[in-house]
Amino acid sequence: MKFFWRYIFPALYGLMAYFTIRLLTDSVTGMQFWKRSWALNCTEMAFSILMGFMFLWGDRRVFHYFDKKWHDNFSSKRIRQELLGVFLINLVVQNVFMIPMVALTDNGLQWFDLVDVNIIPLFYALIYYGVRRSYDYSMAYADNRLQLEKITNDKLETELKFLRAQYHPHFLFNALNTIYFQMDEDVAAAKKTVEKFADLLRYQLYDQQEKVCISHEIQYLQHFVELQKIRSTRKLQLQVYFDEQLRDEKVYPLLFLPLVENAFKYIGGEYQLQLLLRKQGGEISFYVENSLPAAAPDLPDMDIERKNGIGLENLQRRLELLYPGRHRFSAGVRQQQFIAELKLTINE
């Protein structure tokens, strides 16, 4: 393909300009150039082919210059300067190669010859410029779009990593605090707790980059609940239900945990806690409800976490990044119960 554009197309370009000029000139003068000497015609066509090579070579130099100077800037100023460059190259090449040829053949240089020699090749030059640069600009636009998408994805990935980094210290503090107090009472039990904690941490470290089976998440939540029960009061009334239909569905990891952690953190009053994870059609529904201390005010949605932590606000942002338009999340206080519900669409 390079061979065609470098060696064949310039010759065709020159011949196309030549035959157009000859046809228009013959229409005015009544001449029939194909009845002339073929030696003369071939000489003119050779000059026209040479003109095509010189013009397209000059155009390529102009394009290379502006690509290097302006790079990704496709402003109107650049286009105007490119068009001016194409016009000047066309003007010089046509008058160097075509005017002497016309002046030395037939009845000499007439005014209409001068017009044809300059206007017709310029018309083809502008068509060539439009086709060539529209292709170059469209390719550059596509490349810029890909670069923009890559930058956007990198930015989102960086934000997700930052959100995870926010979450880990929150989890670590609570778990280590549990183990710390347990060691004063039962060292053997504390060792088992450390083992559970290690399993939880291992899951966090190695399974966060891609979607995981919901069964892994359920196992993780079960371990987390067991760890929290160790440090909870005996008054805790815990109800946990994980739907047996949930097996191989894929979800992003650690989206349910902030709700469970939040429930254990703020539970009080009658110490009732309910965790329900179910499959409903094409959705996974996670429902968390916990009683609040009697002194807890009637706060609007999300205010508890915005005043005292980053868990739910962090979760909301992660959902926007990972499940845009495919999640529903609500959280708030109702009748001394803090209720949070998250629904994820898994079948689009």
Automatic annotation (TrEMBL):
Cellular component terms per the entry's GO annotation: membrane
Keyword set, alphabetical order: Kinase, Membrane, Transferase, Transmembrane, Transmembrane helix
Annotated ranges, domain Signal transduction histidine kinase internal region: 158-235
Segments passing through the bilayer: 7-25, 45-63, 83-103, 109-131
GO MF annotations in UniProt: phosphorelay sensor kinase activity
InterPro entries: Bact_2-comp_sensor_kinase, HATPase_C_sf, Sig_transdc_His_kin_internal
Cross-referenced Pfam families: His_kinase
Protein name, UniProt field: Sensor histidine kinase
Originating species: Chitinophaga flava
Source organism phylogeny: Bacteria, Pseudomonadati, Bacteroidota, Chitinophagia, Chitinophagales
